[in-house]
Amino acid sequence: MNDAALKSDTQDIVVDEVFPHAPETIWKTLTTGELISRWMMAPTGFEPVKGKHFTFQTTAAGAWDGVIHCQVLEAAPNERLVYAWKGGHESNVGYGSPLDTVVSFTLSRVAEGTRVRLVHSGFVLPKNDTAFRTMGEGWKKVVRNLDAIAAEQDSPKPLH
Amino acid sequence: MTQAAAINAVMRTLSDPTRRAVFERVAISDEITVVELTRGSGVTQGAISQHLKSLKHAGLVAERPEGRNVYYRAQPEGLAPLVDWMSHYGVFWRDRFANLRTLLKEIDP
Questions:
Q1: Which of A132, A137, A140, A152 best tests the B interface by mutation, with the highest count of B CBs <10 A?
Q2: Which region, left, alpha or beta, applies to residue A52 given φ > 0 means left and ψ of -120 to 50 means alpha?
Q3: Between the ranges A53-67, A101-115, B81-95, where is the mean pLDDT highest?
Q4: 8 A C-beta contact, residue B55 and residue B9
Q5: Cα–Cα–Cα angle for A34, A55, A8, nearest 5°?
Q6: CA–CA separation, A109 vs A80, rounded Å?
Q7: Among the ranges given (A102-111, A137-146, B15-24, B100-109), the one the predictor scored with the smallest mean pLDDT
Q8: Domains of chain A (ranges plus CATH)?
Q9: Choosing among B28, B87, B93, which should be mutated to test the A contact, i.e. which has the most A CBs within 10 A?
Q10: CA–CA separation, B59 and A15 (whole Å)
Q11: Nearest residue, CB atoms, B84 vs list A21, A133, A147
Q12: To the nearest whole number, what is the mean pLDDT of chain B?
């Protein structure tokens, strides 16, 4: 078993792209319920107001109903939108396992339009990071991680 | 089988340390026979055969009979139900950004 597989740490997903549109237009797509539902998922109760709670319905898994519970943490018009993104259930492994993360969109005006940087942060290792992701890095590495995954499954409490 | 059920089946299969050890040995070999797996394992050939049967049932190994021997090899795709949150959201966000680009083209041509 390698130590890295057991280390409790968090990891981020980053998607950073330039769109040939003004920040104001992009802000609209990030903060208007009807538009959010057209490119992402239909939110329930969303308003770009700090403290506001809203939800997304995603695919259920085991004891988890598939509801993502969100709360707006920051809303600076045309610049930055941040919300908490929580879901999952203790009884699940991999998809549907407990998730306590933060999604942020940062907009910056560039010559070609607007740079949109998405950071989805707070994925806990190894809980949210099991075999499948490492498969890209080689089948043998996946096998080395199996001990950790299985231990996690057997243990009633998280390892960290 | 639902995704959760598939995950549980794979996890149940791999939760046995001996079976996991068998699977790991199969995975690091290109192909391996029951006799080779039994050698030095400290477990009977019958027990190894039972573990291979469970692994095969969970889709984690495949077998290839040749003459008197049966060769086993690992099937990486058997681990697919363990798809995790990070890879899920990695794909999710890239797809959504593609949708966003299309939507922006529609509303702001």
A1: A132
A2: beta
A3: A101-115
A4: no
A5: 130
A6: 12
A7: A137-146
A8: 15-124 (3.30.530.20)
A9: B87
A10: 34
A11: A133
A12: 83
B86, A10 contact by CB (below 8 A): no
What average pLDDT does range A4-10 have in this prediction? 47
**Amino acid letter, A117:** R
Q: Find tokens 């879901």 and name the residue.
A: A87
Domains of chain B: 3-82 (1.10.10.10)
Question: How many CB atoms neighbour CB B64 within 10 A?
Answer: 10
- Phi, psi (deg, nearest 5) at residue A103: -110, 130
Three-state DSSP class for residue A75: strand
What residues in B contact A147, CB-CB < 8 Å?
A: 20
| Tokens 């019958």 -> residue | B46
Residue of A29, A11, A13 lying closest to A21 (CA atoms): A29
Q: Which two tokens stand for residue B14?
A: 């791999």
ipTM of the complex: 0.70
C-alpha span between B49 and B42 (Å, rounded): 14
d(CA B32, CA B75): 13
Phi (first) and psi of residue A95, to 5 degrees = -55, 125
d(CA B85, CA B62): 28
Residue A21's nearest CA partner among A81, A59, A67, A78 is A78
